[in-house]
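User: Just a sanity check before I run the rest of the batch. Below are the C-alpha coordinates for the first item. I only need the designed sequence back.
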Protein backbone atom coordinates (compact mmCIF):
# COMPACT_ATOMS: atom_id res chain seq x y z
CA UNK A 1 0.00 0.00 0.00
CA UNK A 2 1.32 3.44 -0.94
CA UNK A 3 -0.11 6.35 1.03
CA UNK A 4 0.40 10.00 0.16
CA UNK A 5 0.18 12.24 3.25
CA UNK A 6 -0.56 15.89 2.52
CA UNK A 7 0.86 18.13 5.23
CA UNK A 8 0.94 21.87 5.91
CA UNK A 9 2.98 24.76 4.55
CA UNK A 10 5.92 25.24 6.93
CA UNK A 11 5.79 29.03 6.99
CA UNK A 12 2.24 29.00 8.36
CA UNK A 13 3.71 27.74 11.63
CA UNK A 14 0.89 25.28 12.36
CA UNK A 15 3.12 23.35 14.72
CA UNK A 16 0.61 20.81 16.02
CA UNK A 17 -0.47 19.84 12.49
CA UNK A 18 3.13 19.49 11.33
CA UNK A 19 3.88 17.29 14.33
CA UNK A 20 0.78 15.19 13.65
CA UNK A 21 1.71 14.59 10.01
CA UNK A 22 5.29 13.74 10.96
CA UNK A 23 4.13 11.28 13.62
CA UNK A 24 1.69 9.68 11.17
CA UNK A 25 4.41 9.40 8.53
CA UNK A 26 6.84 7.77 10.95
CA UNK A 27 4.18 5.43 12.37
CA UNK A 28 2.97 4.25 8.98
CA UNK A 29 6.50 3.59 7.78
CA UNK A 30 7.14 1.67 10.99
CA UNK A 31 4.08 -0.46 10.16
CA UNK A 32 5.56 -1.31 6.76
CA UNK A 33 3.49 1.15 4.72
CA UNK A 34 5.08 3.01 1.81
CA UNK A 35 4.14 6.45 3.12
CA UNK A 36 5.20 9.65 1.34
CA UNK A 37 4.89 13.06 2.98
CA UNK A 38 4.22 16.07 0.72
CA UNK A 39 3.50 19.72 1.42
CA UNK A 40 3.67 23.05 -0.40
CA UNK A 41 7.23 24.35 -0.44
CA UNK A 42 8.17 28.04 -0.21
CA UNK A 43 9.00 29.58 -3.58
CA UNK A 44 7.29 32.94 -3.65
CA UNK A 45 7.21 32.62 0.14
CA UNK A 46 11.00 32.85 0.27
CA UNK A 47 10.61 36.57 -0.31
CA UNK A 48 8.80 36.91 3.02
CA UNK A 49 8.50 34.04 5.44
CA UNK A 50 5.92 35.69 7.69
CA UNK A 51 2.52 34.04 8.11
CA UNK A 52 0.82 37.43 7.98
CA UNK A 53 0.77 40.45 5.68
CA UNK A 54 2.73 40.06 2.43
CA UNK A 55 4.04 36.66 3.54
CA UNK A 56 0.52 35.31 3.83
CA UNK A 57 -0.36 36.32 0.27
CA UNK A 58 2.91 34.99 -1.15
CA UNK A 59 2.20 31.76 0.70
CA UNK A 60 -1.17 31.55 -1.02
CA UNK A 61 0.67 31.49 -4.38
CA UNK A 62 2.83 28.59 -3.19
CA UNK A 63 -0.12 26.71 -1.72
CA UNK A 64 -2.85 27.31 -4.28
CA UNK A 65 -1.03 28.05 -7.55
CA UNK A 66 2.20 26.02 -7.52
CA UNK A 67 1.44 23.03 -5.28
CA UNK A 68 -1.73 21.61 -6.92
CA UNK A 69 0.04 20.44 -10.12
CA UNK A 70 2.70 18.66 -8.05
CA UNK A 71 0.00 17.17 -5.84
CA UNK A 72 -1.86 15.76 -8.85
CA UNK A 73 1.33 14.07 -10.09
CA UNK A 74 2.02 12.55 -6.68
CA UNK A 75 -1.58 11.43 -6.24
CA UNK A 76 -1.47 9.43 -9.47
CA UNK A 77 1.18 7.15 -7.95
CA UNK A 78 -0.61 6.62 -4.60
CA UNK A 79 -3.17 4.01 -3.57
CA UNK A 80 -4.65 6.35 -0.94
CA UNK A 81 -4.30 10.09 -0.41
CA UNK A 82 -4.66 11.39 3.14
CA UNK A 83 -5.08 15.15 3.65
CA UNK A 84 -3.90 15.43 7.24
CA UNK A 85 -5.54 18.77 8.08
CA UNK A 86 -9.07 19.74 7.05
CA UNK A 87 -7.87 23.33 6.49
CA UNK A 88 -6.28 21.93 3.31
CA UNK A 89 -9.59 20.54 2.06
CA UNK A 90 -9.30 22.79 -1.02
CA UNK A 91 -6.92 20.11 -2.34
CA UNK A 92 -9.74 17.54 -2.51
CA UNK A 93 -10.57 18.23 -6.19
CA UNK A 94 -6.93 17.55 -7.10
CA UNK A 95 -6.97 14.06 -5.52
CA UNK A 96 -10.62 13.14 -6.10
CA UNK A 97 -9.70 10.50 -8.68
CA UNK A 98 -7.92 8.49 -5.98
CA UNK A 99 -9.34 7.00 -2.76
CA UNK A 100 -8.91 9.80 -0.25
CA UNK A 101 -9.43 10.80 3.35
CA UNK A 102 -9.44 14.11 5.23
CA UNK A 103 -8.70 14.39 8.95
CA UNK A 104 -10.93 17.01 10.62
CA UNK A 105 -9.19 18.53 13.62
CA UNK A 106 -11.88 21.01 14.56
CA UNK A 107 -14.60 23.13 12.98
CA UNK A 108 -13.74 26.24 14.98
CA UNK A 109 -12.61 28.48 12.10
CA UNK A 110 -15.53 27.37 9.94
CA UNK A 111 -17.97 27.93 12.79
CA UNK A 112 -16.47 31.34 13.53
CA UNK A 113 -16.81 32.32 9.85
CA UNK A 114 -20.47 31.35 10.09
CA UNK A 115 -20.93 33.67 13.07
CA UNK A 116 -21.36 30.97 15.74
CA UNK A 117 -19.01 32.57 18.30
CA UNK A 118 -19.80 35.91 19.88
CA UNK A 119 -16.25 36.04 21.32
CA UNK A 120 -14.65 36.10 17.89
CA UNK A 121 -15.46 37.63 14.52
CA UNK A 122 -13.85 36.49 11.27
CA UNK A 123 -12.87 39.08 8.65
CA UNK A 124 -14.17 38.94 5.10
CA UNK A 125 -11.05 37.28 3.61
CA UNK A 126 -11.22 34.67 6.37
CA UNK A 127 -14.86 34.03 5.61
CA UNK A 128 -14.03 33.49 1.93
CA UNK A 129 -11.23 31.05 2.81
CA UNK A 130 -13.36 29.10 5.28
CA UNK A 131 -16.23 28.88 2.79
CA UNK A 132 -13.79 27.41 0.25
CA UNK A 133 -12.51 24.89 2.81
CA UNK A 134 -16.04 23.96 3.86
CA UNK A 135 -17.34 23.45 0.30
CA UNK A 136 -14.52 21.04 -0.50
CA UNK A 137 -14.83 19.27 2.84
CA UNK A 138 -18.40 18.41 1.91
CA UNK A 139 -17.12 16.77 -1.29
CA UNK A 140 -14.51 14.53 0.37
CA UNK A 141 -14.91 10.78 -0.03
CA UNK A 142 -14.17 10.03 3.62
CA UNK A 143 -13.74 12.12 6.78
CA UNK A 144 -12.39 11.18 10.16
CA UNK A 145 -12.33 13.41 13.25
CA UNK A 146 -9.96 13.61 16.20
CA UNK A 147 -12.78 13.67 18.77
CA UNK A 148 -16.47 12.86 19.08
CA UNK A 149 -17.10 16.56 19.68
CA UNK A 150 -15.53 17.44 16.33
CA UNK A 151 -17.48 14.64 14.63
CA UNK A 152 -20.75 16.07 15.92
CA UNK A 153 -19.83 19.47 14.47
CA UNK A 154 -18.84 17.91 11.14
CA UNK A 155 -22.07 15.95 10.84
CA UNK A 156 -24.18 18.98 11.77
CA UNK A 157 -22.46 21.34 9.36
CA UNK A 158 -21.64 19.15 6.35
CA UNK A 159 -24.71 16.88 6.52
CA UNK A 160 -22.45 14.03 5.45
CA UNK A 161 -23.86 10.53 6.00
CA UNK A 162 -22.70 9.29 9.45
CA UNK A 163 -21.09 6.23 7.86
CA UNK A 164 -18.63 8.50 6.03
CA UNK A 165 -17.50 10.34 9.18
CA UNK A 166 -15.64 8.45 11.91
CA UNK A 167 -13.43 9.23 14.92
CA UNK A 168 -9.72 8.45 15.02
CA UNK A 169 -8.21 9.77 18.22
CA UNK A 170 -4.91 11.61 18.15
CA UNK A 171 -1.94 9.63 19.35
CA UNK A 172 0.90 11.24 21.23
CA UNK A 173 3.56 12.42 18.81
CA UNK A 174 6.25 12.05 21.46
CA UNK A 175 6.69 9.40 24.20
CA UNK A 176 5.49 11.69 26.98
CA UNK A 177 6.14 10.26 30.44
CA UNK A 178 7.26 11.66 33.80
CA UNK A 179 10.83 12.92 33.71
CA UNK A 180 11.81 11.03 36.84
CA UNK A 181 14.39 13.32 38.38
CA UNK A 182 12.27 16.42 37.74
CA UNK A 183 9.13 14.78 39.16
CA UNK A 184 11.04 13.58 42.24
CA UNK A 185 12.60 16.99 42.89
CA UNK A 186 9.20 18.68 42.45
CA UNK A 187 7.59 16.29 44.94
CA UNK A 188 10.35 16.93 47.47
CA UNK A 189 9.91 20.70 46.98
CA UNK A 190 6.16 20.30 47.41
CA UNK A 191 6.62 18.42 50.68
CA UNK A 192 9.16 20.88 52.07
CA UNK A 193 11.99 18.35 51.82
CA UNK A 194 15.53 19.02 50.50
CA UNK A 195 15.88 18.88 46.71
CA UNK A 196 18.59 19.49 44.13
CA UNK A 197 17.77 22.77 42.36
CA UNK A 198 20.30 21.90 39.64
CA UNK A 199 17.85 19.26 38.38
CA UNK A 200 15.39 21.96 37.35
CA UNK A 201 18.05 24.12 35.73
CA UNK A 202 19.36 21.15 33.77
CA UNK A 203 15.94 20.59 32.18
CA UNK A 204 14.96 24.24 31.67
CA UNK A 205 12.34 24.13 34.42
CA UNK A 206 11.68 26.92 36.98
CA UNK A 207 13.15 26.25 40.40
CA UNK A 208 10.18 27.73 42.26
CA UNK A 209 6.70 26.11 42.22
CA UNK A 210 4.65 26.99 39.13
CA UNK A 211 1.33 26.45 37.40
CA UNK A 212 1.66 25.62 33.71
CA UNK A 213 -0.42 26.77 30.74
CA UNK A 214 0.33 25.43 27.26
CA UNK A 215 -1.38 27.16 24.37
CA UNK A 216 -1.27 29.99 21.87
CA UNK A 217 -2.99 33.35 21.85
CA UNK A 218 -5.98 32.21 19.80
CA UNK A 219 -9.27 33.45 21.27
CA UNK A 220 -10.50 29.97 22.14
CA UNK A 221 -7.44 29.22 24.29
CA UNK A 222 -8.75 31.79 26.81
CA UNK A 223 -5.41 33.29 27.78
CA UNK A 224 -7.20 36.13 29.67
CA UNK A 225 -9.06 33.50 31.73
CA UNK A 226 -5.78 31.79 32.60
CA UNK A 227 -4.24 35.04 33.80
CA UNK A 228 -7.39 36.08 35.70
CA UNK A 229 -7.61 32.72 37.50
CA UNK A 230 -3.97 32.92 38.50
CA UNK A 231 -4.38 36.49 39.74
CA UNK A 232 -7.43 35.41 41.78
CA UNK A 233 -5.25 32.96 43.71
CA UNK A 234 -3.72 35.95 45.43
CA UNK A 235 -0.32 36.46 47.09
CA UNK A 236 1.79 33.39 47.72
CA UNK A 237 0.42 31.43 44.77
CA UNK A 238 2.83 29.47 42.56
CA UNK A 239 4.06 31.50 39.58
CA UNK A 240 2.35 31.11 36.21
CA UNK A 241 4.47 29.60 33.43
CA UNK A 242 3.02 30.04 29.94
CA UNK A 243 4.34 27.98 27.01
CA UNK A 244 3.37 29.33 23.61
CA UNK A 245 5.22 27.15 21.11
CA UNK A 246 8.92 27.03 20.34
CA UNK A 247 9.62 24.48 23.09
CA UNK A 248 10.97 21.06 22.15
CA UNK A 249 9.14 17.94 23.29
CA UNK A 250 11.75 16.89 25.85
CA UNK A 251 11.68 20.30 27.56
CA UNK A 252 7.88 20.30 27.49
CA UNK A 253 7.82 16.88 29.15
CA UNK A 254 10.10 18.23 31.88
CA UNK A 255 7.85 21.30 32.33
CA UNK A 256 4.80 19.06 32.74
CA UNK A 257 6.71 16.82 35.16
CA UNK A 258 7.72 19.71 37.42
CA UNK A 259 4.44 21.66 37.37
CA UNK A 260 1.94 21.78 40.21
CA UNK A 261 -0.79 21.40 37.60
CA UNK A 262 -1.81 22.33 34.05
CA UNK A 263 -4.36 25.15 33.83
CA UNK A 264 -6.20 24.74 30.53
CA UNK A 265 -9.58 26.56 30.64
CA UNK A 266 -10.25 26.70 26.88
CA UNK A 267 -13.51 27.99 25.49
CA UNK A 268 -13.31 25.45 22.65
CA UNK A 269 -10.94 22.79 21.35
CA UNK A 270 -10.82 20.19 18.62
CA UNK A 271 -9.06 17.73 20.91
CA UNK A 272 -6.91 19.33 23.61
CA UNK A 273 -3.50 17.74 23.22
CA UNK A 274 -1.92 19.39 26.31
CA UNK A 275 -4.43 17.54 28.53
CA UNK A 276 -3.12 14.16 27.40
CA UNK A 277 0.52 15.25 27.39
CA UNK A 278 0.25 16.62 30.93
CA UNK A 279 -1.49 13.52 32.28
CA UNK A 280 1.07 11.25 30.63
CA UNK A 281 3.80 13.17 32.48
CA UNK A 282 2.05 12.89 35.86
CA UNK A 283 0.76 16.47 35.86
CA UNK A 284 -2.69 17.16 37.27
CA UNK A 285 -5.09 18.99 34.94
CA UNK A 286 -7.71 21.70 35.47
CA UNK A 287 -9.72 22.27 32.29
CA UNK A 288 -13.16 23.20 31.01
CA UNK A 289 -16.06 20.84 31.69
CA UNK A 290 -17.30 20.49 28.11
CA UNK A 291 -16.45 18.25 25.16
CA UNK A 292 -13.89 17.50 23.90
CA UNK A 293 -11.99 18.40 27.10
CA UNK A 294 -14.15 16.01 29.14
CA UNK A 295 -13.85 13.40 26.40
CA UNK A 296 -10.06 13.62 26.48
CA UNK A 297 -9.45 14.19 30.20
CA UNK A 298 -11.85 11.45 31.31
CA UNK A 299 -12.35 11.04 35.04
CA UNK A 300 -8.76 12.00 35.78
CA UNK A 301 -9.09 15.79 35.29
CA UNK A 302 -10.69 18.56 37.36
CA UNK A 303 -13.36 20.46 35.42
CA UNK A 304 -14.62 24.04 35.43
CA UNK A 305 -18.24 24.82 34.59
CA UNK A 306 -17.40 28.34 33.40
CA UNK A 307 -13.86 29.04 32.11
CA UNK A 308 -14.42 32.79 32.55
CA UNK A 309 -15.23 32.51 36.28
CA UNK A 310 -11.83 33.37 37.73
CA UNK A 311 -12.86 33.03 41.36
CA UNK A 312 -14.22 29.49 40.94
CA UNK A 313 -11.23 28.47 38.83
CA UNK A 314 -8.89 29.78 41.52
CA UNK A 315 -10.82 27.84 44.17
CA UNK A 316 -10.49 24.60 42.17
CA UNK A 317 -6.78 25.20 41.70
CA UNK A 318 -6.33 25.95 45.39
CA UNK A 319 -8.14 22.72 46.29
CA UNK A 320 -5.73 20.70 44.13
CA UNK A 321 -2.74 22.49 45.57
CA UNK A 322 -3.98 21.53 49.03
CA UNK A 323 -4.28 17.81 48.25
CA UNK A 324 -2.29 15.52 50.50
CA UNK A 325 0.30 13.16 49.02
CA UNK A 326 -2.10 10.20 48.74
CA UNK A 327 -4.80 12.23 46.97
CA UNK A 328 -2.24 13.73 44.66
CA UNK A 329 -0.80 10.32 43.83
CA UNK A 330 -4.25 8.89 43.02
CA UNK A 331 -4.99 11.74 40.60
CA UNK A 332 -1.59 11.43 38.96
CA UNK A 333 -1.98 7.67 38.49
CA UNK A 334 -5.47 8.09 37.09
CA UNK A 335 -4.13 10.66 34.60
CA UNK A 336 -1.32 8.40 33.43
CA UNK A 337 -3.81 5.55 32.91
CA UNK A 338 -6.19 7.83 31.02
CA UNK A 339 -3.46 9.19 28.73
CA UNK A 340 -2.55 5.64 27.73
CA UNK A 341 -5.81 5.51 25.74
CA UNK A 342 -4.27 7.87 23.19
CA UNK A 343 -1.34 5.89 21.87
CA UNK A 344 0.29 6.39 18.50
CA UNK A 345 -0.08 2.66 17.84
CA UNK A 346 -3.88 2.88 18.23
CA UNK A 347 -3.95 5.92 15.93
CA UNK A 348 -1.94 4.13 13.24
CA UNK A 349 -4.18 1.05 13.46
CA UNK A 350 -7.22 3.27 13.09
CA UNK A 351 -5.92 4.95 9.97
CA UNK A 352 -4.81 1.67 8.42
CA UNK A 353 -8.36 0.34 8.88
CA UNK A 354 -9.77 3.37 7.02
CA UNK A 355 -7.23 3.05 4.19
CA UNK A 356 -8.21 -0.61 3.73
CA UNK A 357 -11.88 0.36 3.78
CA UNK A 358 -11.28 2.94 1.04
CA UNK A 359 -9.36 0.47 -1.11
CA UNK A 360 -12.09 -2.16 -0.71
CA UNK A 361 -14.89 0.22 -1.74
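Assistant: Here's the designed sequence for the first item:
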Amino acid sequence: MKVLLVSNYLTDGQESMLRFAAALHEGLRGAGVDAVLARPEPFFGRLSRAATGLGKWLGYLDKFVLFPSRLRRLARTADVVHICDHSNAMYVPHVAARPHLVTCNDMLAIRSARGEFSQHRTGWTGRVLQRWIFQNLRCAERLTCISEATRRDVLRLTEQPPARVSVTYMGQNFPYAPVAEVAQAAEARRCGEPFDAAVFARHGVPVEPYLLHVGGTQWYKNRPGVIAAHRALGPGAPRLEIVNGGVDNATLAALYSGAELLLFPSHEEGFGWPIVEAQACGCRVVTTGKPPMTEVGGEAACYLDDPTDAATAAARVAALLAQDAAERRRMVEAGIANAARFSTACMIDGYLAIYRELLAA
